[in-house]
Specification:
Distance between the termini: 51 Å
Structural class: alpha/beta
Order of helices and strands: EEHEHHHEEHEEHHEHEHHHHH
Helix content: 40-55%
Number of strands: 9
Number of helices: 13
Shape: globular
Radius of gyration: 19 Å
Length: about 280
């Protein structure tokens, strides 16, 4: 398969997809935005991960980001516009997380992390079966400092309740070395060695006897079956957390300023004066 094949030529606009010698490479390809994703890009990521799981030629998947960062999470400019047009829950209606497509994928998925892996991007990186990080890489959920709570169930399952509460609620960034101590990543290597180390790990899996890696993942992920069930099949979880996301949280000055700026820009583009006293 050629780059961006995915079964259809030119199917992807925001990511790159390539299969070579049993390894599928999914590359988030918006480096000018540090690979922040909007809903069309989110859907492409999910589509490519699912395509890799269905492709009999693929033995292992490498998930990576182009440029200086793996992924800094959602595109807030896009989501601000979306929420202005379609309501506060518009983002949540479209973004369902990465748990289902990563954990339920039959193939081993390796994330290759440099720079930043934040918010949904951090969740994506840490959900993968193996995670290799460059020295100095940073993980975290800084959006909590601006009134946006993490909805993912990955944190308590992986970190435990106390560490999950501290890391997510504080919004602090966690360096790769601390992630190694917390067993969130498999290995931390110098940045200039990251690609080669991931290639080595992927090749070892791709060259293993057919079915071994897939069965191993299924057995290991049996311990995560409740996480998969809750995040993909429990409609009460989806209903409750959608309400929690918008209820009882005072937007920070940063969020209000961003919304006001978008509203002003939209009004200016349409030639409509902003209403007096409108934030």
């Amino acid at each position: 398969m050629n780059q961006q094949d995915g079964g259809k030529a030119g199917e992807y606009q925001f990511i790159l997809y390539d299969v070579k010698d049993g390894i599928a490479y999914i590359t988030l390809n918006q480096p000018q935005k540090l690979n922040a994703f909007h809903l069309p890009m989110y859907r492409e990521i999910c589509q490519a991960i699912e395509a890799s799981g269905e492709d009999p030629e693929v033995r292992v998947v490498v998930l990576r980001g182009s440029g200086r960062a793996f992924c800094v999470g959602r595109d807030f400019k896009y989501s601000a516009d979306l929420q202005m047009e379609s309501g506060v829950s518009a983002w949540r209606r479209g973004y369902k997380g990465f748990n289902r497509v990563v954990l339920a994928n039959t193939k081993m998925i390796i994330s290759q992390v440099q720079g930043y892996a934040l918010g949904g991007g951090g969740t994506l990186a840490l959900l993968c079966d193996l995670t290799f990080a460059a020295s100095g890489a940073k993980f975290g959920y800084p959006e909590t400092r601006h009134g946006i709570a993490s909805r993912t169930m990955m944190w308590p399952w992986t970190l435990g309740v106390k560490v999950a509460n501290e890391v997510v609620a504080s919004g602090r960034l966690v360096l790769a070395d601390e992630c190694l101590q917390l067993h969130l990543v498999n290995e931390v290597v110098p940045a200039d060695q990251l690609e080669a180390r991931v290639e080595q790990a992927a090749r070892a899996i791709a060259d293993a006897p057919p079915g071994v890696a897939e069965l191993t993942k299924r057995l290991v992920n049996w311990a995560s079956r409740d996480q998969i069930r809750v995040t993909t099949h429990d409609r009460q979880f989806d209903y409750d957390t959608a309400h929690w996301d918008a209820a009882g949280v005072e937007p920070s000055d940063w969020m209000l300023s961003a919304i006001a700026a978008r509203r002003t820009a939209l009004s200016d583009s349409l030639g409509i004066p902003a209403a007096p006293g409108t934030p």
